[in-house]
Amino acid sequence: MEDEAFYSSFNPDYLDSDEESDTGTIYGSFMQLRYTMQDPKLAAKCVEYFARTGELYPGAAWLTERKGG
Fold first, then answer.
1. CA 41, CA 18: separation in Å to the nearest integer?
2. What is the rounded distance in angstroms from the CA atom of residue 11 to the CA atom of residue 6?
3. Is 41 helix (H, G, I), strand (E, B) or coil?
4. Could you report the per-residue pLDDT of 23-57, keeping only the tens digit for each?
5. For residues 33 and 19, is the Cβ–Cβ distance under 8 A?
6. Does an H or E element contain 49, and which?
7. How many CB atoms lie within 10 A of CB 33?
8. Number of other residues whose CB lies within 10 A of the CB of residue 34
């Protein structure tokens, strides 16, 4: 079985924090700030880069959780 991975952007300034955003997500709950991007231009670069290359944008911080094996 091929390894599966989940990738998430993260904010290094909040990595050890449990502080939550002051806006809800599309799922109706609040998100911890460690999983947010504060720079909309960087977010746009990440989307554009992934759409063009199928790869994660190297100029952003990413968390990886691997499953399988």
1. 25
2. 16
3. helix
4. 766 777 777 888 888 888 999 999 999 999 999 99
5. yes
6. helix 40-53
7. 18
8. 19
- Please give the structure tokens belonging to residue 31: 């998100």
Return the beta strands (E) in the chain as ranges: 4-9, 20-24, 30-32, 62-67
pTM for this model (two decimals): 0.69
The structure tokens listed for 36 are 């947010």
Q: Which tokens hold the place of 55?
A: 């790869």
DSSP annotation of 55: S
CA distance 69 to 62: 21
User: CA-to-CA distance for 35 and 9, rounded, in angstroms?
Assistant: 6
Query: Quick one: tokens of 22?
Result: 């002051």
